[in-house]
Amino acid sequence: MKTDEKKLVGTLAHFLVSDSDSTALRSFLSSLTYHSSTIRTELVQLLNKWQDKEDDLIFPAKDLWADFKQLVGSNPDLGVAVVDGCNINDIASFYDEINAVYMSSESWKIGSLDGFDDLLYGGFGTFKDAASHCIVWKDIAHSRTSLGLETTLAYYQGKLGAQSPFNQTHFQKKLDELKAGRGETYFDIVADIIRSHRKVTWVYKGYPQNKSVYL
Q: In terms of Cα–Cα distance, which of 7, 6, 55, 1 is closest to 27?
Protein backbone atom coordinates (compact mmCIF):
# COMPACT_ATOMS: atom_id res chain seq x y z
CA MET A 1 0.00 0.00 0.00
CA LYS A 2 1.39 3.40 -0.97
CA THR A 3 2.18 5.71 1.93
CA ASP A 4 0.43 9.08 2.10
CA GLU A 5 3.53 11.23 1.64
CA LYS A 6 1.57 14.47 1.86
CA LYS A 7 0.32 13.51 5.30
CA LEU A 8 3.84 12.67 6.47
CA VAL A 9 5.28 15.93 5.13
CA GLY A 10 2.41 17.93 6.64
CA THR A 11 3.01 16.34 10.02
CA LEU A 12 6.73 17.12 9.81
CA ALA A 13 5.82 20.73 8.96
CA HIS A 14 3.74 20.94 12.12
CA PHE A 15 6.67 19.78 14.24
CA LEU A 16 8.90 22.40 12.62
CA VAL A 17 6.62 25.42 12.97
CA SER A 18 5.73 24.47 16.54
CA ASP A 19 9.35 24.16 17.74
CA SER A 20 8.40 20.75 19.12
CA ASP A 21 10.72 19.00 21.53
CA SER A 22 13.38 17.05 19.69
CA THR A 23 12.44 13.76 21.39
CA ALA A 24 8.96 13.87 19.85
CA LEU A 25 10.34 14.88 16.47
CA ARG A 26 12.96 12.15 16.53
CA SER A 27 10.29 9.60 17.46
CA PHE A 28 8.21 10.71 14.49
CA LEU A 29 11.17 10.49 12.13
CA SER A 30 12.02 7.03 13.43
CA SER A 31 8.46 5.90 12.79
CA LEU A 32 8.91 6.75 9.12
CA THR A 33 11.49 3.97 8.85
CA TYR A 34 8.61 1.54 8.49
CA HIS A 35 7.53 3.40 5.35
CA SER A 36 10.96 3.69 3.75
CA SER A 37 10.13 1.25 0.97
CA THR A 38 6.99 3.15 -0.04
CA ILE A 39 8.15 6.79 0.06
CA ARG A 40 10.36 8.74 -2.31
CA THR A 41 14.13 8.69 -1.98
CA GLU A 42 14.45 12.35 -0.94
CA LEU A 43 12.14 11.80 2.03
CA VAL A 44 14.06 8.68 3.07
CA GLN A 45 17.31 10.63 2.90
CA LEU A 46 15.92 13.38 5.11
CA LEU A 47 14.71 10.99 7.81
CA ASN A 48 17.97 9.02 7.74
CA LYS A 49 19.93 12.24 8.20
CA TRP A 50 17.91 13.57 11.14
CA GLN A 51 16.43 10.70 13.15
CA ASP A 52 19.64 10.05 15.11
CA LYS A 53 20.77 13.65 15.60
CA GLU A 54 21.52 14.88 19.10
CA ASP A 55 18.96 17.28 20.59
CA ASP A 56 21.14 20.37 20.30
CA LEU A 57 21.67 19.66 16.60
CA ILE A 58 17.95 19.50 15.84
CA PHE A 59 16.67 22.63 17.61
CA PRO A 60 17.04 25.40 16.72
CA ALA A 61 16.15 23.76 13.42
CA LYS A 62 17.82 26.02 10.86
CA ASP A 63 19.48 23.17 8.97
CA LEU A 64 16.43 20.92 9.22
CA TRP A 65 14.28 23.75 7.86
CA ALA A 66 16.71 24.11 4.95
CA ASP A 67 16.44 20.40 4.19
CA PHE A 68 12.64 20.55 4.44
CA LYS A 69 12.46 23.52 2.05
CA GLN A 70 14.75 21.69 -0.37
CA LEU A 71 12.51 18.61 -0.19
CA VAL A 72 9.24 20.38 -0.91
CA GLY A 73 10.80 22.82 -3.37
CA SER A 74 12.16 20.03 -5.55
CA ASN A 75 8.95 18.00 -5.25
CA PRO A 76 6.08 20.39 -6.06
CA ASP A 77 3.67 17.46 -6.31
CA LEU A 78 3.78 17.33 -2.50
CA GLY A 79 1.86 20.60 -2.62
CA VAL A 80 3.74 22.50 0.08
CA ALA A 81 4.62 26.21 0.00
CA VAL A 82 7.04 27.37 2.71
CA VAL A 83 6.65 31.05 3.60
CA ASP A 84 9.52 32.42 5.70
CA GLY A 85 7.93 34.95 8.01
CA CYS A 86 11.26 36.56 8.86
CA ASN A 87 11.55 37.72 5.26
CA ILE A 88 8.38 39.78 5.69
CA ASN A 89 9.07 43.21 7.16
CA ASP A 90 6.44 45.30 5.37
CA ILE A 91 3.82 44.98 2.64
CA ALA A 92 6.33 45.10 -0.21
CA SER A 93 8.45 42.31 1.26
CA PHE A 94 5.31 40.23 1.87
CA TYR A 95 4.73 40.20 -1.88
CA ASP A 96 8.43 39.61 -2.53
CA GLU A 97 8.21 36.46 -0.40
CA ILE A 98 4.96 35.26 -1.96
CA ASN A 99 6.32 35.83 -5.46
CA ALA A 100 9.53 33.97 -4.61
CA VAL A 101 7.53 30.99 -3.32
CA TYR A 102 4.72 30.89 -5.88
CA MET A 103 5.63 32.84 -9.00
CA SER A 104 9.16 31.81 -9.99
CA SER A 105 7.84 30.04 -13.09
CA GLU A 106 5.78 33.04 -14.23
CA SER A 107 6.94 36.10 -16.19
CA TRP A 108 4.91 38.45 -13.98
CA LYS A 109 4.36 39.03 -10.27
CA ILE A 110 1.46 39.76 -7.94
CA GLY A 111 1.37 42.84 -5.73
CA SER A 112 -2.11 43.21 -4.29
CA LEU A 113 -4.57 41.47 -1.99
CA ASP A 114 -6.80 40.68 -4.95
CA GLY A 115 -3.82 39.15 -6.72
CA PHE A 116 -3.01 37.02 -3.67
CA ASP A 117 -6.62 35.85 -3.52
CA ASP A 118 -6.54 34.94 -7.22
CA LEU A 119 -3.27 33.07 -6.72
CA LEU A 120 -4.82 30.76 -4.13
CA TYR A 121 -7.65 29.89 -6.51
CA GLY A 122 -5.05 28.42 -8.87
CA GLY A 123 -4.66 28.70 -12.60
CA PHE A 124 -1.20 30.25 -12.34
CA GLY A 125 1.83 29.94 -10.10
CA THR A 126 3.58 26.91 -8.65
CA PHE A 127 0.38 25.10 -7.69
CA LYS A 128 -1.78 26.25 -10.59
CA ASP A 129 -3.15 22.76 -11.28
CA ALA A 130 -3.16 21.41 -7.72
CA ALA A 131 -6.43 20.18 -6.23
CA SER A 132 -5.10 21.37 -2.86
CA HIS A 133 -1.93 22.64 -1.27
CA CYS A 134 -0.49 23.62 2.08
CA ILE A 135 1.05 26.89 3.24
CA VAL A 136 3.65 26.28 5.93
CA TRP A 137 4.29 29.68 7.50
CA LYS A 138 7.56 29.81 9.43
CA ASP A 139 8.02 32.49 12.12
CA ILE A 140 4.50 33.78 11.72
CA ALA A 141 4.74 36.06 14.77
CA HIS A 142 7.27 38.22 12.94
CA SER A 143 4.94 38.55 9.96
CA ARG A 144 1.97 39.38 12.17
CA THR A 145 3.91 42.24 13.73
CA SER A 146 5.36 43.48 10.44
CA LEU A 147 1.91 43.60 8.83
CA GLY A 148 0.27 44.94 11.96
CA LEU A 149 -1.32 48.18 13.08
CA GLU A 150 1.45 50.63 12.18
CA THR A 151 1.93 49.18 8.70
CA THR A 152 -1.81 49.09 8.04
CA LEU A 153 -2.37 52.68 9.16
CA ALA A 154 0.34 53.82 6.75
CA TYR A 155 -1.20 51.69 3.99
CA TYR A 156 -4.64 53.30 4.38
CA GLN A 157 -3.21 56.79 4.73
CA GLY A 158 -1.36 56.24 1.48
CA LYS A 159 -4.67 55.58 -0.25
CA LEU A 160 -6.06 58.94 0.89
CA GLY A 161 -3.73 61.34 -0.90
CA ALA A 162 -5.23 64.28 -2.81
CA GLN A 163 -4.50 62.69 -6.20
CA SER A 164 -5.29 59.15 -5.13
CA PRO A 165 -7.39 57.15 -7.63
CA PHE A 166 -8.75 54.94 -4.85
CA ASN A 167 -12.17 55.08 -3.19
CA GLN A 168 -11.59 57.75 -0.55
CA THR A 169 -14.75 56.99 1.40
CA HIS A 170 -13.93 53.29 1.63
CA PHE A 171 -10.38 53.76 2.84
CA GLN A 172 -11.28 56.56 5.25
CA LYS A 173 -13.81 54.20 6.84
CA LYS A 174 -11.19 51.46 7.08
CA LEU A 175 -8.74 53.92 8.65
CA ASP A 176 -11.29 55.13 11.19
CA GLU A 177 -12.23 51.56 12.15
CA LEU A 178 -8.60 50.66 12.65
CA LYS A 179 -7.96 53.71 14.84
CA ALA A 180 -11.03 52.81 16.88
CA GLY A 181 -9.70 49.30 17.47
CA ARG A 182 -12.35 47.61 15.34
CA GLY A 183 -10.56 47.22 12.03
CA GLU A 184 -8.40 44.50 10.56
CA THR A 185 -4.67 44.79 10.09
CA TYR A 186 -3.07 43.89 6.78
CA PHE A 187 -2.05 40.58 8.34
CA ASP A 188 -5.65 39.93 9.41
CA ILE A 189 -6.82 40.48 5.84
CA VAL A 190 -4.16 38.11 4.47
CA ALA A 191 -5.23 35.52 7.06
CA ASP A 192 -8.89 35.91 6.08
CA ILE A 193 -8.00 35.35 2.43
CA ILE A 194 -6.08 32.16 3.21
CA ARG A 195 -8.86 30.79 5.41
CA SER A 196 -11.46 31.49 2.73
CA HIS A 197 -9.84 28.92 0.43
CA ARG A 198 -10.98 25.44 1.39
CA LYS A 199 -8.36 23.84 -0.85
CA VAL A 200 -5.57 25.48 1.17
CA THR A 201 -4.32 24.05 4.48
CA TRP A 202 -2.49 26.60 6.61
CA VAL A 203 0.14 25.31 9.04
CA TYR A 204 1.72 27.71 11.51
CA LYS A 205 2.75 27.80 15.15
CA GLY A 206 -0.34 27.13 17.25
CA TYR A 207 -2.50 25.75 14.44
CA PRO A 208 -3.58 23.16 13.66
CA GLN A 209 -3.40 21.63 17.12
CA ASN A 210 -3.34 18.09 15.78
CA LYS A 211 0.11 17.06 14.59
CA SER A 212 -1.43 14.77 11.97
CA VAL A 213 -2.01 17.18 9.10
CA TYR A 214 -3.90 16.06 6.02
CA LEU A 215 -3.15 18.19 2.97
A: 55
> Is the peptide bond preceding residue 76 cis, with omega within 30 degrees of 0?
no
Question: For residue 161, is it within any domain?
Answer: no
- Write the CATH number for 193: 3.30.370.10
Q: Does the pLDDT at position 23 exceed 70?
A: yes
In a domain, residue 153? The reply is: no
What mean pLDDT is reported for the chain? Answer: 88
Q: Buried (b) or exposed (e) across 191-200, using 16+ Cβ within 10 A?
A: bebbeebeeb
Total structural domains within the chain: 1
| Domain-located, residue 192 | yes
d(CA 81, CA 131) in angstroms, rounded, equals 14
**Following DSSP, what letter does each residue of 132-192 receive, concatenated?**
-EEEEEETHHHHHHHTSHHHHHHHHHHTTSTT--S-HHHHHHHHHHHHTT-SPPHHHHHHH
52 within a domain of the structure (yes/no): yes
The residue type at 135: I
15/30 Cα distance (integer angstroms): 14
The Cα–Cα gap between 118 and 110 comes to 9
pLDDT at site 162: 72
Plot region of 165 (φ>0 → left; ψ -120 to 50 → alpha; else → beta): alpha
Structural domain that includes position 10? 5-148+185-203
